Amino acid sequence: MNRTKRSTALALAAGAAALALAFTGCAPSSDDGGSGDSSAALRVWAGSQTPITANFNPFAPTVLHAALGPIYETLFFFNKTADEAPTGLIGDSFEFNEDGTVLTVKLKDGVKWSDGEAFTADDVVFTFEYEANGYADKGLVSAEATDDTTVVLTFDSPQFTREFAILGSTWILPEHVWSQVEDFATFTDENPVGTGPYVVDSVTEASYTVVANENYREEGKPAVKKVQYIGLDANQSAQDLLSAGELDWTGMFIPNPDDVTANGIISTINTPQDPTVLYTCANAALGCVGEQTDVAVRQALNVAIDRATIKEKAFVGLTGDISPTFALLPRDEKWLADPANAISPQSPNAAEAGSILEAAGYTKGSDGFYGKDGAPIELDLISVDGWTDYNDAAKLIAEQAAEAGIKVNASTVQWQEFSDARQTGQYELIMGGVIGTSVADPYQIYNDWFDGKSTIKVGEQLLPGTWNFSRYDNPVVNDAVAAAAATNDEAAKQAAYATIQTEIVRDLPYIPLVINATQTFTNSKDYTGWPTEDDLYAFPPAWGASAAGVILANLTPAK
Amino acid sequence: MKFYARRITIYLVTLWATISLNFLLPRLMPGDPAEILIAKMQRAGEVSETTIRNIRLILGSGSDVPLWEQYLGYWGRLLHGDLGISVTKYPTPVTELIANALPWTLVLVGLSTVIAFVLGIGIGAWVGWRRGTWVDHLVPGTTVLQSIPYFWLALILVAVFAVNLRWFPIFGGYDVFAFPSGPEPTLAFLSDAIYHGILPAITIVLSSVGGWLFGMRNMMVATLSEDYIITAEAKGLRPGRILRAYASRNAAIPSIAGFSITLGFVVAGSIVMEQVFTYPGVGKLMFQAVQNNDYALMQGVFLVITITVLAANFLMDLVYGFIDPRARHNA
């Protein structure tokens, strides 16, 4: 109790050292300002480790979380938790032409940069032409400002599927600042000028603080005037701080969330996003070796797995149920062609696994394991040492497969070995993740993970931005992905996705397991306006780029 | 004089060898920093092609330069006091990172090492002196504390004293909420920093005092059976004088040698303590550097550690003669 009083006293007297000293000596005992006090900062841990280095350059790999969303903004905000149209941040509306090669963006009027300069269409043109954004290599033919609030972007190919990349993850830069930057690679941008609700106040090795942007376009926002991002090295510290009510917002995994919500201050929300799967090196034509290259083995494994047990035992019941189509349900409901594919089987079926294998010509040996021509099926399953949930799941899978007569050897490897294995395709099975899509559309997964152009033959490294670790290359899928990319017509896209889904549900180059939990903890006692189950207006964790700015601008201190 | 010249030469050769190893070892590690970073970002969600391209541009390994040229360049920069730029904390110079972390480590780990040593030697001497009585039970007691995995001990102490009783803060080198603009030269800050150091210091002392105590106690018991102690007792010297001037002084010699080595390692910080308490220090720099294949940072930290350990050894070599007259005579 004494400590909080002193902290408050000190916070009030920040900057005036001598004054602070006097306050500490005689802190008035009636003072008991909670953290909902308008002068107190909202405390966030977005995952930064100490020591913190001041770097608000959105192109830097070590950029601090507050730069993306709270300071720099994209044109539009895409809520990745729901199937809804993007909302305008500094953009007002946008429109594609018929074939998707010309994108016309209308901007909001009267927006100012945090240094008081007016934001205009020229800034947007500058951003899209800026070298670090690399749009020249991505087919941008021209970017033109037709008037102060209109930008026309012309591309050499349809951009329907890149809508999010262009409008939702390109950080708009102030031309009057960034045109002076000599080398974006070494620029640390310690006093960033953005259009977002916050500006940088101070940065130390232990934390950094952002304060309300006086020039923010929305009157009266942000209501929370000061936000302090802290650095922590251990998840346990964050959990302890939450329990003690000293941390207001974070996104992290806590196996038993009741422990921290018991204090009546912290609320939690779980928004599963990213699939966990078994990568299988599936394509013998590209050089994969092992019995998993036989589709029957993958299908048998798929039905032999007890997903309900894996969810309970390895992921403490916090994961979501996965659809073998990789559409995130219920968000991507409209893209699910066949309702039968809504969810992967949750309970194991050893008999079915057996009959699939027998139909494919495998026979059960005397040791109880299936094999062909005297050679038993034996698959090596690796997971990264220390990712304990994955290690546990791998062990469970090995046991469950054994019950269905498939021999799986689970082992753990160092991260580097895992990375090399999946990059070069020299593996049989890997416990791995798939990146969930940022919009309500599974296209990005189909394109990056299933398309033949996103892979390379075994022994070579995948190209940057391609994730087809399974080496899956199916002309039917490739054509359908290309067809989906070229159209903005919902029915045509649905038809293409239906084709893809039929193929991948049968072929199973990635055997779906669960959808990873994404937990967020918020102080709902002192602040209101957080995303909730009923009003999931943004992806809630504190580390979410763009969404963090939207959430912060929406918060108000509780009275 | 010849003795010292020989020692100095040996130390110079060792220094050269360690610095060269320091250059070579990180380069034998597999993987490159850009890949690690991309994969890490990928775990948190979609990573755009542009980001990946930029990361490779910024962190791409300049591995087409031949190794020996890198080696020469390494020495050249080293002699100018330039340890390079950290990749993990891009683009902070390594010297700055180490300079900021070192004071915290030196004060906290240094002080608690000294406290643990003094306590261990003091109590060890006393326990050895009173051998065969109830105080012998202190030995297993403290060794149990030492054998508990450090991180576990630290977590328990945090759970009890910081989270439940709220006597101590949960994390940090100072109250980051009260001092959002960082360390400042005021009394309030100083007392806050001391307050934040108490619990980490206690964990270090608790987990290392047992070793000193055990070693000292056994040396004490051995020394007490020496003829000169019996002589001293026969002469009728006061027990207190025998304890301090005769037994303890001789029994402490091996511990003092060990202590100097330990002091050298103080600069390495305490990786686990710094993780558990999010305490600033050198240990976490080393940890993060190894995790992220941050060669420059790794080399910088290892360099500081090797030099200090060598220096501590060297000093010990020089002063050992003063502590132990026998060493002086043999040399």
From TrEMBL, chain A:
Report membrane topology.
Lipid-anchor
In Swiss-Prot or TrEMBL terms, this protein is called: Peptide/nickel transport system substrate-binding protein
Q: Which Gene3D superfamilies match?
A: Dipeptide-binding Protein, Domain 1, Dipeptide-binding Protein, Domain 3, Periplasmic binding protein-like II
Tell me the compartments it is located in: Cell membrane
Its family remark reads: Belongs to the bacterial solute-binding protein 5 family.
Q: What is its main location?
A: membrane
Tell me the InterPro entries matching this sequence. Answer: Peptide/Ni-bd, SBP_5, SBP_5_CS, SBP_5_dom
Q: SUPFAM superfamilies under this entry?
A: Periplasmic binding protein-like II (SSF53850)
Which keywords has UniProt assigned to this entry? Answer: Signal
User: A GO term (biological process) for this protein?
Assistant: peptide transport
Domain of life where this protein originates = Bacteria
GO cellular component annotations of the record: ATP-binding cassette (ABC) transporter complex; periplasmic space
First and last residue of the signal peptide:
1-22
Q: Which GO-annotated molecular functions does the record name?
A: peptide transmembrane transporter activity
Solute-binding protein family domain mapped to chain residues = 92-452
UniProtKB/TrEMBL annotation, chain B:
| Location(s), subcellular | Cell membrane; Membrane
Say where the protein is mainly found: membrane
Bilayer-crossing residues are 7-25, 101-129, 150-174, 194-214, 251-277, 297-323
Report membrane topology: Multi-pass membrane protein
Q: What Gene3D superfamilies does the annotation carry?
A: MetI-like
Instruction: Output the GO biological process annotations, alphabetical, semicolon-separated.
Output: transmembrane transport
| Sequence ranges assigned to domain ABC transmembrane type-1 in this UniProt record | 102-316
Q: Does the keyword Ribonucleoprotein apply?
A: no
Listed GO cellular component terms? Answer: plasma membrane
Question: InterPro entries, alphabetically?
Answer: MetI-like, MetI-like_sf
Recorded superkingdom: Bacteria
Q: Which CDD domains match?
A: TM_PBP2 (cd06261)
The alphabetical list of record keywords is:
Membrane, Transmembrane, Transmembrane helix, Transport
Regarding protein family, the annotation reads: Belongs to the binding-protein-dependent transport system permease family.
Annotated protein name in UniProt: Peptide/nickel transport system permease protein
Specify the species: Agromyces terreus
